[in-house]
Amino acid sequence: MDRGKRASNIAARNSKIYMDLKDIIRESALPFLPAKSLFRFRGVCRDWKLQIASPFFAHTQSLAFRAVSGLFYQPLNHLPSFISLDPNSYGVPDPSLKFLPVPVHIRSSSNGLLCCQGITGDKAYYICNPVTRQWKKLPIPSANHGKDPSVVLVYEPSLLDFEAVYRLICAFPSSDFDDATEFEIYSSKEGSWRTSGEICFARWKVNSSLGVHVNGVVYWQGNQGKIHAFDLAKERFQVLSASHGLNACLGLINGKLSLAYASGRTLLVKVLANAHQNTMQMTSCETMWADKYHIHLNSAVFGGEAYENAKVLCLHDDWVLIEIGKALYTYDLKTGNVKETCKAPEYGARTYHEIMDVVAPKKNEIMDVVK
Length: 371
Description:
Blueprint: H1 2-29, H2 35-41, H3 46-53, H4 55-64, E1 70-75, E2 81-84, E3 104-110, E4 113-118, E5 125-129, E6 134-137, E7 150-155, E8 166-173, E9 181-187, E10 192-200, E11 212-214, E12 217-221, E13 226-231, E14 236-241, E15 249-253, E16 256-263, E17 266-272, E18 289-296, E19 311-316, E20 319-324, E21 327-332, E22 338-343, E23 350-355, E24 368-369
Antiparallel strand pairs: 1-2, 1-23, 3-4, 4-5, 5-6, 6-24, 7-8, 8-9, 9-10, 11-12, 12-13, 13-14, 15-16, 16-17, 17-18, 19-20, 20-21, 21-22
InterPro entries: At3g26010-like, F-box-assoc_dom_typ1, F-box-assoc_interact_dom, F-box-like_dom_sf, Gal_Oxase/kelch_b-propeller
Pfam family, one: FBA_1
Protein name: F-box associated beta-propeller type 1 domain-containing protein
């Protein structure tokens, strides 16, 4: 009798341990998964379905899952497409963004959100989440941003701020001053555009190429090998020098502005070490850019392609996207692993935007759900 009672107690304890493990997986493991996997796991059980559908879980997942899941690219005069870095785990339901009310050009991306601009009509900006297909049309800017605007979307999820707040910053040619650049900022918190009082009268122009946001500062590529920096807190403009030519790609490594470019058979990656080097004494030994990686592009690794013509398309933390010949490769900067992602599109000029599989923001925060 006692032996039977002890066996029953052991079974009860094992059942409790199993339930605790299930709760641990649901509460602690699910937020670290990409959206595509989460949508699959909604069919596991009712508890998981309710957990994944809750707004708090969406907020938590946007903080926990920070890996890049793929890249949107848009050839000239064509619909957007999506390159998944792992098709089994990452994906979006509508890569061409046909859920938006008009055809669009993708202008910028930030932590799971895209900024798009309508091709027709009033050419308004749209902020959308390609995973949930939620979107919002922004008010028409007060300034003329031009045909190919230099805009950067800034969306930084915060643990203590449940409301999803984002900003859109555009550098545009001034209509009041010749050869000057002004800045207009949209805030989702205010729901309106505002032109900054800062005006850049430098002869260096902001290119419409992709800009990046790093620690409260927006950076754009400029002409003559310059990089343009706009501090969002101080609303001050600064020009940084860089001896990298015009083919460098701006990105982020360990929270610092970085750039990568191919020179012959070598891939070079540099990190911004001192943004104020140009204001220091001429005898100072401080350098603005510090070498991070110096990598030989082995033709055997890249399938015998013409690696002398390699071009860096994206840079994010531990990897770069490189176009060599007719193929796109992801190169892991830490391990040296190379993976051929896909064949390069045969169309004309195109841009690439990295994206994360996040399920936030949710309804009633910043998006209007498509009806």
